């Protein structure tokens, strides 16, 4: 693409959404950032990273929405301080405790509202194949169904495409694409724990470290430890 279309991008502050930003821009979209704080333990660090990235790319807009309902609902180690963040088990097929029930439906609903209000023609989300193995709301079928919701739930003249460009990709594929696009990964945060340096042992750190290792590069952020997950 070489036009000036607009896209809302769900930006968490992590590497996947940062890569989605650069992917959208590479396709010719002007980026509108949507960042949400929903009571996650890492909300302060995530906001800091998302805001810095918005400034780095000179985003057209940065919308930060604070909503507590997902935290009040609970049932996730990301929002419930009484639930322990599990150590990494990247071979497990179980849905991890970090799953926030139906989170993406909530976030995408806000993103579509934001997109329709600003005449954006796309909404980008950085979900990928290793997400949907554990998170039901990251599966291709979910995004296909949500596209139908967008089509029937917006004004007749509204056309918004839901873009999940990495949905069939591995984390390594994303890292390789981001390195190709010069994504500033040193400005991102993926750890499920809120203290720097990143722990290196939660699921999110494990997948991230392995992705950089397999791509032949070193993750530029600091870790308390850098184990190899085989």
Task: Compute the number of structural domains.
Answer: 1
Order of helices and strands: EHEHEHHEHHEHH
Q: What percent strand?
A: 5-15%
Secondary-structure-derived class: alpha/beta
Tell me the distance between the termini: 39 Å
* Global shape: globular
Mean pLDDT: 86
CATH superfamily: HUPs
Widest beta sheet: strand line-up: 3-2-1-4-5
Sketch the major β-sheet. 5 strands, parallel
CATH class wording: Alpha Beta
- Radius of gyration equals 17 Å
Poorly predicted regions are none
Number of continuous helical runs: 8
Give the key terms.
230 residues, alpha/beta, Rossmann fold, five-stranded parallel beta sheet
What does this structure look like?
The chain is α/β, with parallel strands linked by helices and 230 residues long. It has one domain: Rossmann fold (3-Layer(aba) Sandwich), CATH 3.40.50.620. The chain is built from eight helices and five strands. It has a five-stranded parallel sheet, with helices on both faces. Helix 1 packs across helix 7 and helix 7 crosses helix 8. The chain is globular and about 50 Å long. The relative contact order is 0.18. The model has no long low-confidence stretch (mean pLDDT 86).
